[in-house]
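Posting for a labmate who doesn't have an account.
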Amino acid sequence: MKKIIVSLILTFSLSLLSACGKEKPLLTATDYDLDAETAQTIRGVKIGDNADSFLAAYKEYDILSSVDGGDYRYLPVEEIPFDKALTTILPSFFVDGTAVEIDSFCENNGIEKEGLLPFLTDEAYLEHHAVVYQYLVFEWENGTIRDIRSESMDYNKDGSYYTAN
């Protein structure tokens, strides 16, 4: 599981490089809350919903997709094959409780996007900042959502699991 999280983080970071030039809104920490009984998101998306419901709530955000168990990658919303075996995730980095806009964060800290993960996971940085990677996971089957999960990795607690390649 930890290996999957690291893979998702790397994929998210790299996908941001290919999605340059398009400023996307940021999800908030409450956007990752799920109703415990219904597994419904705060934006009203629930198990059994179709692509129209999902896109009405999330089309403006970064969406990573894994088709037929393949690698996660950024796809424009019109190219996401919702009718296939699909997993979509909505990822965000939070630093000190605030969602991070990657371009501004990198510019303000004088780092290249490729250096984002090493920067965020550096012990010296973590001594002074809380860094959490959160993501909503949507599992799709035949055009409908069959499962929704909210997952996260707190680098201050779980950072030892990350190893830079």
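Reply:
Got it, the structure tokens are right above this. The first strand starts at residue 64 and ends at 67.
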